[in-house]
Amino acid sequence: MIRGHNKLAVHLRVLRALMLREMITRYGRASLGYAWAVLEPTAFIALLSLLFAQVAHSPPVGRSFVLFYATGYVGFHWFHDISSVTARSVFVNRPLLAFPPVTPLDTVIARFLLQALTAIATGAVIFGTILAVFADPIALDIRALMTAFALAAALGLGTGMANCWLFAQSRSWELVWGVISRPLFLISGVFFTFASLPGFARDALWYNPLIHVTGFMRAGFYPVYDASYADMGYVLGVAAALGVLGMAAIWRAPARLVTP
Amino acid sequence: MIRLERVSKAFRRNGIRRRLLADVSFTLPDVRGLALIGRNGAGKSTLLRVIAGTLRPDTGRVISDEQISWPMGFAGGFHPALTGAQNTRFVARLYGRDPAALTDFVARFAEIGRAFRLPVETYSSGMKARLAFAVSIGLDFDCYLVDEIIGVGDAAFRDKCRAAFRERLGNARLIMVSHNPQALAQFCEAGLVIENGRLSYHDRLKDALAAHAANLAQPVPA
After folding, report:
1. Given CB atoms, is B84 within the 8 Å cutoff of chain A?
2. Which residue, A126, A123, A120, A121, is CA-closest to A43?
3. Averaged over B67-81, what is the pLDDT?
4. H or E element at residue B16
5. Residue of A nearest to B70 (CA)
6. Per-residue pLDDT for A30 more than 70?
7. CA-based nearest residue to A88, from A104, A73, A100
8. Which is more confident, A28 or A258?
9. Is the pLDDT reported for residue A259 higher than 60?
10. Which of residues 21-40 of A touch B (CB under 8 A)?
11. Within an 8 Å CB–CB cutoff, is residue B131 touching chain A?
12. B168 vs A87, A189, B45, B100, B185, CA distance in Å?
């Protein structure tokens, strides 16, 4: 019911306003602000590298421990960050839904876009630093890297949208998800390679979409890495299924997402 | 023009279903100030949200060619962690207006002084009401939806709002929910009574209040 403008223009205006608001509340108040988005995964990668450098002679691929764990963890971090931020988008923005131009879907898209931009910045800083300081010059496969990012983002958005609805249905699920989603990185190929697994483990873990993200990411940095198992279609299918589930719920019953 | 076409809305919680709007078809009459009256839980706020478009009815639809405000009330609206000025800029962006111009207007109209630069969570309810009114009057809506909040401001501010509605908004109208007959009488000439999912219109506020009083004398409908 906004006069004289088409719907798309209204949505773009709303998205911009929501993103600016989000930046002020989220990064304007924490003392470390935006830097924390980069520091957190960096600290974790450094920790992994230090630990494994003590027990192993060389990483499973290449010579740099730091690069190996970064190529494993950053993709997982993208997914985890994007999914947890979008999952709470309707809930945290519920006062703003009092404004008729703001729809629940706008809040999801605004948070997703902002977090995806943050993810790109995080990846650029971490990999830029590693390539400049630690690793030998290597030929990057930009296409594989972009695929890894797109898949992590799509999976994060799909999971976030489904959880948007599931969290509103069940507070217990939110707690359970918080517990199980972190250790997911243990089975996502962060500190091993898919090829090094025994056959039965490969067959089972293939269904974890995140292991495909790791595959594309490593293929982007290591020309010798065999990522032939990684299936873009499978990951996009899972992301789309979750996204459609969440979208249907967000679209049909916005009020129930807001008043849990 | 605002028209409800076969609008139904029910809420279900813990197996109990409450029907607040029962297949309502109604064109809101073209009066400057319309009071929306009903007992607690009758669905006044729900109707405002349906008209505003922030709540989707179970069936039916609302047709409108007017720019309608958000329902100004205590629940929701401003972000508590942002300052009054930041919230004002957010709303300006939302409606495609110039943030600086709206901020200037609100700073002058709301008369909350330096608190305008403090987070809204530090405001009293009267200050929140001043901010909400100032922002909405600055936006030139065709139809203002007011949910209780007007009773909060002090008398001087209420007069100022009424003058602003009268003067600046020659063509605008007001739909107002309040349990305070004095506040209603200041702003509204006609009344709409909501009871048991149905609406009844009275073109004199006095009659609407009398019908409401008669409803209250009856037991709560099952």
Report:
1. no
2. A126
3. 80
4. strand B16-27
5. A99
6. no
7. A104
8. A28
9. no
10. 21, 24-25, 29
11. no
12. 43, 65, 26, 20, 20
Pairing type for strands B173-177 and B143-147 reads parallel
Which one, of A236, A78, A105, A101, lies nearest residue A161 by Cα? A105
| Average confidence (pLDDT) over A232-251 | 92
Put simply, the answer to whether A29 touches B68 (Cβ < 8 Å) is no
Contacts of B90 (CB under 8 A, 6+ apart): A17, A20, A21, A96, B79, B82
Inform me whether the C-beta atom of residue A251 falls under 8 Å from chain B C-beta atoms: no
The arithmetic mean of pLDDT across residues A44-59, rounded, is 87
pLDDT at A4 (0 to 100): 46
Query: How many CB atoms within 10 Å of residue A124?
Result: 11
Residues A148-176 have pLDDT tens digits of 999 999 999 999 999 998 888 888 898 99
Q: Who among A1, A2, A13 is closest to B93 (CB)?
A: A13
Any B CB within 8 A of A95 CB: yes
Contacts of A198 (CB under 8 A, 6+ apart): none
- Residue A7 contacts B where some CB pair is shorter than 8 Å: no
Give the residue-averaged pLDDT of B42-52: 91
Q: Does B53 touch chain A (CB under 8 A)?
A: yes
Helix (H, G, I), strand (E, B) or coil at B10: strand
Contacts of A25 in chain B (CB under 8 A): 79, 81-82
Cβ burial of A246 (10 Å; 0-12, 13-18, 19+) is buried
* CB B64, CB A1: distance < 8 Å: yes
CA distances for A33 relative to A30, A37, A80, B117, angstroms: 5, 8, 19, 21
CB contact under 8 A, A101 and B65: no
Cα nearest neighbour of A259 on chain B: B13
- Chain segment A198-230, per-residue pLDDT in tens: 999 999 999 999 999 999 999 999 988 888 999
User: CB A25 to CB B54 under 8 A?
Assistant: no
Beta strands (DSSP E) in A32-147 are: none
pTM above 0.90, yes or no: no
Contact across the interface for A24 and B64, Cβ inside 8 Å: no
According to the model, what pLDDT value does residue B37 have?
A: 94
* Mean pLDDT computed over every residue of chain A: 87
pLDDT digits (tens, 9 = 90+) for A88-114: 998 888 888 888 889 889 999 999 999
Of B68, B78, B93, the CB nearest to A20: B93
Instruction: Kindly list the residues from chain A whose CB atom is less than 8 angstroms away from the CB atom of residue B57.
Output: none
**Chain B CB within 8 Å of residue A125 CB:** no
Can you tell me the distance from the alpha carbon of A253 to that of A259, in angstroms, rounded to the nearest whole number?
Answer: 11
Cβ atoms of A84 and A181 closer than 8 Å: yes
Q: Let me know: does B79 contact A93? Beta carbons within 8 Å.
A: no
3-state secondary structure of B216: helix
